[in-house]
């Protein structure tokens, strides 16, 4: 699907089909979502971008990078994408092409950051008026905001898990943490790639308003730091969980050890009296069984009091 927005001299944004768009007179933004082969041909004809560059932007394994052609330059940044019923977070490439009078964005999946940026069509005209660099800057800001929302949601999830760790021994907790850690790994890789791409663009001569890119670079650096902090929290949470599980296991084993110690001497006495000897103390006594049993109970009581005094139980 191709959506074309034109900024004409009357300072309004108009939507037209790409066939009816004049790329020589107006400032154009072409947003291309999972294009067909026919749509790719139309884009190539109108903008002059290469087919290989467009296909790179549609490749879900493509990494963030900056590339310059003779007539245009483009860069790819990774954006967060929510997928599935569980709102699983993945990253997907977004290609941004800048020509003399056009901007072309190419992506395979629907991107929330672009939808948020385009919510208020009335606010687009002042942005278009300031030029391509301001459009790119606002798109990048919307992407950063989306990353921030993702990290905020994960931070709230971490707070819930921290509370559950102290209250429950659920075996699902470490798996939940590991899933979040895996997601953070993808996000971190995407943010680091975006940071390096923006830095390369900032250091090049392709953009005039470098102060805008510097702000973006700082924002990406800060978000990478947020991801690192979240990963450290997850590692600490796993350590706390396993420490608590180990401590609870030690307590259980201690009780078992106390029980075994309590019945050790009575078991020894009963074992001795079970031996086939002719003469044993109290064997012929009419109350011998109850006397031996009383001695066993007395020994167990003494040991129990000793353990309580040592605070072992």
Question: How do the strands and helices of this protein lay out in sequence?
Answer:
Layout: E1 2-7, E2 13-16, E3 27-33, H1 37-47, H2 51-58, E4 65-68, E5 73-83, E6 88-98, E7 102-107, H3 112-117, H4 124-129, H5 132-167, H6 172-203, H7 210-262, H8 264-272, H9 288-309
Parallel strand pairs: 3-7
Antiparallel strand pairs: 1-2, 1-3, 4-5, 5-6, 6-7
Short description:
The protein has 313 residues and is α+β, with helices and mostly antiparallel strands. The protein has helices at residues 37-47, 51-58, 112-117, 124-129, 132-167, 172-203, 210-262, 264-272, 288-309; strands at residues 2-7, 13-16, 27-33, 65-68, 73-83, 88-98, 102-107.
CATH evolutionary superfamily of the largest domain:
CorA soluble domain-like
Note the main sheet.
Answer: 7 strands, mixed
Mean pLDDT over all positions: 78
The CATH class name of the largest domain reads: Alpha Beta
Number of helices: 9
